[in-house]
Amino acid sequence: MAEGDDISEERVNDRRLLGTSLLKNLANSEKFKKFTTAVKERLTSDNQRATNKLFASLKVGEAKENIFESSAFKEWIKRVTKNYKRDPQKGEVAMFFSLAAHYDDAALAKLLFQAQQSPKTRTMAKKFEVMQLYNWITQERTSDDVFNLLKLKADDKNLFKNPLLKTWISYAIELKDDAYDALYLKLTKHYDDYALARMLISAKDDANPIVRKVEQAQFKSWLADGKTADGAFNILKLNAEKGDGLLENPALSTWITYVTQLGKDDPYHMLLLKLTRHYSDDELANVLLTAKAALTTWISYVNKLNKHKETPEKFAVISELEEHFQRMDLARMLYDAKREAKTRDVKQLVSDLQDEQFEKWMAEDLNPIIIDVLVESTDRNHPSNLGVTLDYHNFVSARTKSE
Q1: Distance from chain centroid for Cα 33
Q2: pTM of the model
Q3: 26 and 136: one domain?
């Protein structure tokens, strides 16, 4: 086949496969049977020609807003239904083909999407949408064909906001294609891993289910390629971030999700280790305990992972921090951070962490006398030792009284 031909040999083979498998499978579908029967009959039907002429004479296609709610469209339906009173479903097929003759595929799909937003026109529009999918199938259109017919562009940064993307997904699913893997592959031709991940992160704000499934397709590809946690960290360029900038980077959530799926390492523990490469203990404590956004993000991440553990830990956040900073060092850091907090919100967050540590100590049967010994033995001259001991004594006293 010549290079300039519209249809490549590969696409012809795709169509042959479509014709021999999908159409055979759909043959048992009652809806599809009725549609194809109506399609065959319309070729010689005077009623179809009459339906087309009526569409033109009533100027149905000239409506500027939702044509399904226009007086012309309502009159058209009324007359066509009368002409097809013996078989209303064939009348609906005839109306679909009149619409398909007037609008191109993309314009019609957009029209049907808009009509589905209104309760008054949703049912009819949904029927026509199914007919459009069936019509593409009878024409043996591949998913690539329909992607182009809908004028979708993989390099369009607003692709996930395009309502016709959902139409394409529906068609790919009808073809039994893995729609989300196919879409991911299209996107990789225009974006590298980092750019695509950022695009998906940005589109997530719209709570679009397609975005989440394409992200899963990306993760599946990374897993197949053997991408490690560190590899994904670098792909997302998180290695260029430092401190609270890292914790506030929206790409961090993507990395956490991927590492969790790897199932080999605790992503939150790994994150803390990565932070320690850039900071001394005091600097890291300052990052975590003085910035509300950073602290809130950290607590949120640790708690999310803990919920998915086979045996969730009651004191997950404190246990994670104690593992890195050591128990008494952390106690002094929390005491200092609470006293030096510049905002009420940060003070409350740190105070809550201190309470969690104290609850953990009580669960471990550590009384104030033992804590006094431990805090002195780890750093005898630290100015915050007495404050930690007194705070814990007051906490235990308050809890004992309440019981």
Answers
A1: 36
A2: 0.69
A3: yes
